[in-house]
Amino acid sequence: MKISIIVPVYNMAADGKLEFCMDSLVHQTIEDYEIIAVDDASTDRSYEILQQYQERYPGKVRVIRSPENRRQGGARNLGMDSACGQWIGFMDSDDFAAPDMYEKLLAKAEETGADVVGCQYQMTNGHSFAPGRRMENNTPEQCGILDDRKRASLILQCGSMVVKIYRRDVIERFGLRFPEHTFYEDNYAGPLWMMCFTHFELVDEPLYYYYQHALSTVHTISVEKCRNRMDMALRLVGDCQKRGFYDTYREELESYFTRIYYTNTLFSYVRTAKWPRMSLVRELRDGMNQYFSDFQKNKYYNNAYDEEEKRLIAMHMAHPLRYVIYYKLLRFYRRLRYGQKGE
Question: What is the DSSP string of 45-64?
């Protein structure tokens, strides 16, 4: 079998999201593939909908039901454990694929001998294949045989995992799996997986449709999600040390850690929390001092952040409470002066 497409599903029955996703997969322009839909202990009609697809498309759709909610990483692991394809692909159950997405990815793999192939994606707020806002997921400069320079680039910007297909024999050789019972599992797995593959190629077309809606993980920030993202950054660095990648890519891992553990978490949390917990705000400062105290001297630092962001980071590292007060007042002033665009 050519490819197994794994779809974690949790409470996606509303508004036709799950049906549109599954319809886009069962009508792919390839043969000899399977769709493994993993119901992650949904409490709505998701499992019933998936069973209907399994009945309508026997041999193409397989449904696995997890007895407990293991979150997306755990559901993906269940799917990989039973996959038969030479290649593995992932699809989020609220997104959808162009009809020829997997045909083009597999053709690129066969043409080039790559063991991981990706494409670009586009943002959409509706269930249609109308052109949306194109997003560059990876660049042609990252393609080819993966030497140290290209792997370094892929640590800094690995791109989304759902727009890629991966050789299953490489996944099994390196024992690659996802963290379970957590959000932001791709923050850990994306860079680590790319260090284990040898040849990356890109189909420079937006073949994956990322559906934006209010329940998307990236649209809601909680203390739990902040801690999950921090944990994923710590786990990545720890596993890179165990696997022997750390010394070669220390500066890239430090830069990536700074973004995932620290700046993304700090800025998104303080921006969205009405009353930020100072214990977490201080923990972020203390964590950077513990793990990468010289992160502001990293060779990627100056280009990674604009001047205002660097001033805010310096303020937070020196005075967390002063940072929170200043940042909240700054956003309030900009809302008054510029409206929502000032945020």
Answer: SHHHHHHHHHHHSTTTEEEE
